[in-house]
Write a structure and sequence with these properties.
By secondary structure, the chain is an alpha/beta fold. The chain has helices at about 20-25, 30-40, 55, 80-90, 100-110, 135-140, 145-155, 170-180, 205-220, 235-245, 255-265, 275-285, 295-300, 330, 335-345; strands spanning about 15, 45-50, 65, 95, 115-120, 130, 190-195, 225, 250, 270-275, 290, 305-310.
């Protein structure tokens, strides 16, 4: 069973330090489920920054959520000590660190958590009494397996790679009401696009091409296409809506994250860049076309079987840069026709068209 046994501590208090980004947080959900399966009677708390809390709010494997207020009470400096004191009162038996920074281990050490489990990255091995050596094979694979490797390295069993994203009845009711208000039939085609991406423009397919794609999809299937995104994507969404001859409804920044999840769940098709919402669609098992350019598709590709990845290999990809320093050819070589072909396959799927990358050129 590993280093904490059910016999010794059947009601162990376990804290899991969440990843800091929505996509990463979703990719850690198999670990949360596995921790619950290893310790069915434990009290499991997630320590998470505010913007990823919606990923965990309705998860039945979690008992409590602790807010890491990094922009207020827990701002780096004295806030780090304050967070350690806040955690210390809970008297956790085990901390499982999904987040790999030195600070994550330091906080758990200062909080007096007995067992501190995580990868020995960022020179923090001295602060982890359950320090897991980085496996070079895992480092080159998918992030889901990378996170699961923390448990395996500690002698705990995993529970597979399936992603979890649990939605509230309230958010689902919002999605139903919104679609009805917009005159969109949830039983018919509901199409969403996600043209933004956190971390710069290098991960983003061109707005003009999203607009043209949305226009074709809207006309072909006689629907309004929903434009997803956060508050920072509102201007981008408005631009695409205008360029698409009003084939779209821009909801960027107009929903909570939970409401966005619920609307994605209603989608018959979701077209997206590599982003947190891409992983949300994967967790919700939504048909999606993922346009991949500068990122490492081996590490972050969507894992649901009804996803199609469109990418064109180029010598400089993956570069993992925020902005392209040259000609952005990883995205420029992806045409609207290429993406549209994959979108159409979900509505009229030929026998062997699903689950394949776009042709390499």
């Amino acid at each position: 069973m590993g280093f904490i046994t059910l016999k010794d501590t059947p009601h162990a208090k376990i804290m899991i330090r969440a990843a800091n980004w929505v996509g990463d947080a979703i990719m850690t959900t198999p670990v949360i489920r596995a921790v619950r399966k290893n310790y069915p009677l434990a009290q499991i708390t997630i320590l998470a920054k505010p913007w990823v809390i919606p990923v965990y709010e309705n998860n039945p494997y979690i008992d409590h959520i602790c807010r890491y207020d990094s922009g207020g009470r827990h701002t780096r400096g004295m806030g780090t000590l304050r967070l350690a004191r806040d955690l210390k009162v809970h008297r956790f038996d085990l901390a499982v660190l999904m987040q790999n920074a030195f600070e994550a281990a330091l906080i758990c050490f200062l909080a007096g958590i007995k067992e501190r489990l995580g990868y020995n990255t960022d020179a923090r091995g001295i602060l982890l009494n359950r320090s897991i050596k980085m496996n070079p094979i895992l480092k080159k694979g998918h992030l889901i397996d990378y996170y699961i490797g923390i448990l395996k390295g500690a002698g705990l069993f995993d529970d597979g790679r399936t992603l979890d994203l649990f939605l509230s009845d309230r958010d689902r009711a919002y999605a139903d009401s919104f679609l009805k208000q917009m005159g969109m039939d949830a039983a018919g085609p509901v199409i969403g696009i996600n043209p933004g991406a956190t971390g710069g423009t290098a991960k983003q397919w061109f707005p003009d091409r999203y607009a043209r794609l949305a226009q074709i999809l809207g006309q072909k299937y006689k629907v309004k296409v929903l434009i997803f995104g956060g508050p920072a994507d509102d201007e981008l969404g408005e631009y695409i809506a205008e360029k698409s001859s009003q084939s779209c409804v821009n909801i960027s920044g107009k929903t909570t994250l939970g409401q966005a999840f619920a609307l994605i769940e209603k989608c018959s098709l979701f077209v997206t860049n590599d982003s947190g919402l891409m992983h949300a669609a994967a967790a919700l098992n939504v048909n999606q076309v993922a346009v991949i350019g500068s990122t490492d598709y081996i590490a972050t590709c969507p894992v649901n079987e009804n996803s199609i990845m469109v990418r064109v290999p180029v010598p400089c990809s993956p570069c993992l840069k925020d902005t392209c320093p040259t000609d952005h050819q990883c995205m420029d070589k992806i045409s609207v026709d290429m993406v549209m072909e994959k979108c159409s396959s979900f509505f009229n799927p030929p026998a062997e068209a699903r689950h394949k990358e776009a042709p390499r050129v």
